[in-house]
Amino acid sequence: MNLIDELQHPLVLIVDDEFLQRLPMRVALEQGGFRVVEAEDGMQAWELVQQERPDVVITDVVMPRMDGFVLCETVRRQEKWRYLPIVLATSLDDVISIEHAYQAGATDFITKPINWGLLGHRMRYILRAARTAQALAEREFELLRTRLEIIRRLGQAAEYRDNETGKHIQRMSHYSALLGRAHGLNAHDQELLLQASPMHDVGKIGIPDRILLKPGKLTVDEFTVMKTHTLLGGQLLDEEPSLLLRTAHTIALSHHERWDGNGYPNGLKEEEIPLMGRICTLADVFDALTSKRPYKQPWSVENAVDEIKRCSGTAFDPNLVRLFCEILPEILQIKATFPDPELSDTDCLSIAMLTR
Ligand SMILES: [Fe+2]
Ligand SMILES: [Fe+2]
Prior knowledge:
The protein has 356 residues and is an alpha/beta fold. It has helices at residues 3-8, 19-31, 42-52, 68-76, 95-104, 116-162, 167-183, 187-196, 209-212, 220-227, 229-236, 243-254, 275-290, 301-310, 318-326, 328-337, 351-354, and strands at residues 11-15, 35-39, 56-60, 86-90, 108-111. It has two domains: 3-137, Rossmann fold; 163-354, Orthogonal Bundle (Hypothetical protein af1432). The radius of gyration is 29 Å and the shape is elongated. One fe (ii) ion is lined by residues 200-201, 229, 255-256.
């Protein structure tokens, strides 16, 4: 059967324990141009869904072994069958049963007694609507995936300019999400942190190579230029309608602010600094300290944690430092999950270089 035949003659799975119910349904649907397979209960239907891959299912509700509701739930548990249209043929037309049907994952329902003359048209309409919904959902997913990928690569492009590994942004974004969870952020905000924090240094794209790639300590003037990467990142991500990019804007602007007010670009203090920015600051510095870079050896975890504790209340939010220490085992799991590729040994430089 080729694709055109399949579209013209969709395969319908009829599920009913009574032969005398299946028979007129089969006749009506075959007259409507459908191909038909039949099952006597939900259990057999679930096997046939997997074997025959029907285009649409019409099922009775009350059946032995597995009823129509459980069949719906079983099918929907598998991502693969998320969009398979399932129509419940029911004489239970009370609100509770209908609600139960939709909760179980039914696409639609038909009340008994069924109008056999209209059944084929109704099933085609349901099938078409389900396919349109699937196509829309897939396109939306693809758009979202593409947008996230562009954002990820934009962040990575900025990191590649002064850090030869792309793993830094993966680690620091996961550290940030973990720290957000420890702070009590909900799952949605944790996801925002995960997706937005990779862009914290996106403004480095606008910093001249002679400064960004300078191996030694920056002069005062050079450091003044370097500090503008926060403002450049903020400008790059400004006036964005999407919450994700607005969060990225906030992080790009605030990830070098310090708890004591001596950070940049705005010298914000304590809780004036947006929480997302405070979280990313800590995650970013911990990863910079414990990573090997072309110009330095990694610090040990113990030394890095000591340094972070030492800077609690000056560079970092003390509450976040406390939470960070509590979740250190999980942080180290992330660190182990995204290791850097090997770099050649070079000299170790000061922390000042890491926190430019
Ligand atoms: Fe930065
Ligand atoms: Fe960074």
